[in-house]
Write a structure and sequence with these properties.
It catalyses: (R)-pantothenate + ATP = (R)-4'-phosphopantothenate + ADP + H(+). By secondary structure, this protein is an alpha/beta fold. It has a single domain, classed as Rossmann fold (3-Layer(aba) Sandwich). Helix 3 crosses helix 4 and helix 7 crosses helix 8. The chain is globular.
Length: 314
């Protein structure tokens, strides 16, 4: 049963932990980042700072270490039960949420924090953008205006990629996506080599199985949904569009260069139209309904700060 925007439904599979209580669960040992590292990690328009890292993400990092240790122990005991030699299996984390909600910042931050765990120095982050069909293929299928919707992804290749990493393959390759040109880059790849932890970030990573087939989320050991009210995400999307207009859009190589010269009012109108025609319907139809499938939900307030954490009961 989905979690309503305004209150937790009862009965619920989640326990809600206010930020103040959650912050007390941080590890005793020092795992924090420098201010410079935090600035480099946060996305455009995000407001991640040292306090947010210490009060929200260090406790989350500690929780993830417990889950990772539990997964390793279970794998070892299962191998012993079967009389097999226990190979090392990566701990796979899925991070989901709307466009502009800050999930990419969360994923990048978790990558840096998990690298600091003593047992998991090799951490890889892969976004599902690399598994979007190339623009030419989207145009051929007549779904260019539905880019980001489930049907715009090569889901079979994405599932195969994560399956191979999870099974311990020596080297697995993924396509490379450029946000500047808004397309897959031919002959460019991301190479993943037996990580201790794999983080997979994307809009639809928590989608349920289709017609009884294996779902991507079936391969995850822990999943996070970054949540906020729809009206707040819309405001963040418009703010991000305005910031990009002054930065990335200004490049002649940018797919969105045509928006660089818009007046502020026209830019706000354009961003709002794009949000309401594409991103909001995708959120409401495909992304938000997967929230209740997460292991943990980070609930953000209008100021981008996490106000509470919902953790699935064990």
């Amino acid at each position: 049963m989905p979690i309503p925007d305004t209150a937790v439904a009862h009965p619920t599979p989640f326990v809600e932990i206010p930020r103040g209580e959650w912050s007390q669960l941080a590890p005793k040992e020092h795992l924090s980042l420098t201010e410079t590292e935090i600035v480099q990690l946060r996305g455009l328009g995000d407001r991640l700072d040292m306090q947010e890292v210490q009060e929200v993400y260090l406790p989350l990092s500690r929780l993830l270490t417990l889950y990772a240790a539990g997964a390793r122990n279970l794998h070892a005991e299962t191998s012993r039960f079967l009389g097999e030699r226990a190979g090392r299996t990566p701990f796979v984390i899925g991070v989901a949420g709307s466009v502009a909600v800050g999930k990419s910042t969360v994923a990048r931050l978790l990558r840096e924090l998990t690298k600091r765990w003593p047992d998991t120095p090799r951490v890889e982050l892969v976004t599902t953008d690399g598994f979007l069909y190339p623009n030419a293929e989207l145009e051929r299928r007549g779904i260019m205006d539905r880019k980001g919707f489930p049907e715009s992804y090569d889901r079979r290749s994405l599932l195969r990629f994560v399956s191979q990493v999870k099974s311990g393959a020596t080297e697995v390759r993924a396509p490379y996506y450029s946000h500047l040109v808004y397309d897959i880059v031919p002959d460019a790849e991301i190479v993943v080599r037996q990580p201790d932890v794999l983080i997979v970030e994307g809009l639809n990573v928590l989608a349920p199985p289709v017609h009884g087939r294996l779902a991507l989320s079936d391969l995850f050991d822990f999943t996070i949904y970054v949540d906020a009210k729809t009206k707040d995400i819309e405001a963040w999307y418009v703010d991000r569009f305005l910031a990009l207009q002054e930065e990335a859009f200004a490049s002649p190589d940018s797919f969105f260069h045509r928006f660089a010269s818009l007046s502020r009012s026209d830019a706000v109108e354009t961003a709002t139209q794009v949000w309401r025609a594409i991103n909001e319907p995708n959120l409401l139809e495909n992304v938000l309904p997967t929230r209740s499938r997460a292991t943990l939900v980070l609930k953000k307030a209008a100021d981008h700060k996490v106000s509470s954490v919902l953790l699935r009961k064990i």
